[in-house]
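User: For documentation purposes, I need each entry recorded in a consistent format: the amino acid sequence on its own, followed directly by the corresponding structure tokens. There are two entries in this batch. Please keep commentary to a minimum and don't merge the entries.

Assistant: Recorded as requested. Entry 1:
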Amino acid sequence: MLNARERFAAVLLHQEPDRVPYNLLLYPQLAKQLDAELGAGVDYRDFYGEDIRIVAVDYLEHSEIRLADNYFPLPSIAALEKARRESEAVKERGLVTVNSYMPGIFEHAKAFTNDEFALTNMLLDPDDMRKIVGKIADWLCRLYELYAKVGFDICFNGDDIGTQQSTIMGIQSYREFYKENHKRIIQTIKGVNPDAKVAFHCCGHVHTILPEWIDIGLDIIQSLQPEANDLEYLKNAFGKDITFWGAIGLQSNLFYLSPEEIDDEMRRCISIMAPGGGFVASTANFATDEVSIEKIKQIYRSLAKYGKYDKTGDGKTGDGSLS
């Protein structure tokens, strides 16, 4: 059996390893409940065979970088060294490391101004908006340069620019204000650590914008909400060009379906996304405390049941029942 690092490397090359790699995103209370059920000293992620570990970088003590009249936090040397040690310890166990998520350029532009300004200013004062976006991108490039030096296997960034039906801005606006800045972040990471894979988080609909991210060298698209995307279309159209991370819906699966229905949906999801590699299974977003523990355990059971790659040569995953 492969370890998580070998498994992850294979799917990134669009190969089929022993099984689909996976991790679930759980709110702390759910994680604590799972740990409590398993008993003292047992980590639910180890028990259920998760492949990826998020290593948080502490910002409680931070340095600052000055960009014009604004200050942006950067983690301290001590915090980065702590993250490096934790990441190395995870790697020594054969697992994959990823940094905790920092909101992206557009998300910060909204936070520093407001939602309406961040959208309308692209039309009303494009030069001003380019300056705002550029300063945020300068900061995030510096931040991800530090993250790349830590040595994370996956450098995790992104921008929430999807809605349930479309992107929040048109493609031309994206290209004019954000595309090259997202590209700068990717190039910064790979310039420091060529072995790092770059994952980009975006909730919601990504059909129209995914080719832009493939064009700038993105390795992994994370979230992939099935409620907002046609999984079969994305796999067929882009499955050879990028790795998908997510696809287990919360709105459609965890909140409304029974454990038995979740099993059927997991079977369908894996049958679409797993063939040919290029897929890491995960909840599309963090599962909140309203989700029952039994539903979380059902996802793990379904991953074990359907996530194995069939080595008979017919290209199926799971227990052989997929058709």
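Entry 2:
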Amino acid sequence: MLIRASGEVFPGFYLLSLGNSTHYLIAGDADCTLFDPGLSVHIGPLLERIRQFSPRSAVIKDVFLTHLHAERVGGLPVLRKLCPQIKVWGSPAMKERLSDERLIRSIFEEDRQLSALYPEAPSFVPLPWDEYRNQLVIDRVFPESQTFACPPDLSWRAVFSAGHTPESVFYFIEPFHLLIADEGVGYFRGKHLAAPGADADLGESLQTLQRLKNMELEAICFPNTGLITGELVGRHLEAVIQNTQDLTSQAEKSIKSGTDPGVVREVIYSSFYATASHDPLIRHVLDRSFESLWCQLT
């Protein structure tokens, strides 16, 4: 089953959809934990979703990050300005990467470019560079497999997964056996299609996918399109593993046999990454993953 609409999916666990950008929230009676805030232009609508669906007295206390692409973390400085009480959590690799001002600048610029493409953009005022730079920081780091808890009975565990980006982290939420992931688990593009999203390392991604396949997952929460449950979970993992292996082997064979690389490139793109959606976010992430995949294949 594919779930895209905002609301409480499991007790205390919420899906918050903003077009193709999907976000996840654990809400207790007093505090909320948010996973990935999205773009700067998303923060206002996201806070409205949280007010709409979570307990009225709950405030965002913690933000956990899956990776450092602009469409997932670009809005952190705006969120900090509106909610100064939050603490941002990430891996040691994330904190180290954010010590590079060039990375912060690239997130800042990409966040502005993507935010400007949304209907809300005319009423949205972006932060100036100096303020943005000072707010895009991680407050607390955690080791792999550290477990966090939220009363009364939810907990989650961090697992490092250098597939989509070198610093990617997945979160396993118990007792629901669900996974919050980045595009390292691929793109769900319908029941019969799964596109690889291993921007950083196809090999690392395949190893992670094989491990996930052997776990008893009941849901996968994607950063775009929503979440899948039930039989779709196993089918998606099997499909993205097979498609990753096939793309790697077939592209190599085709190019070695003398097929024009441009033809191979077009076939892969049209088969897995082309989209008719007008949502700038999904087009952006699919194109980026395709270009990264193509570089690894060639």
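Summary note for entry 2:
The chain has a mean pLDDT of 92.
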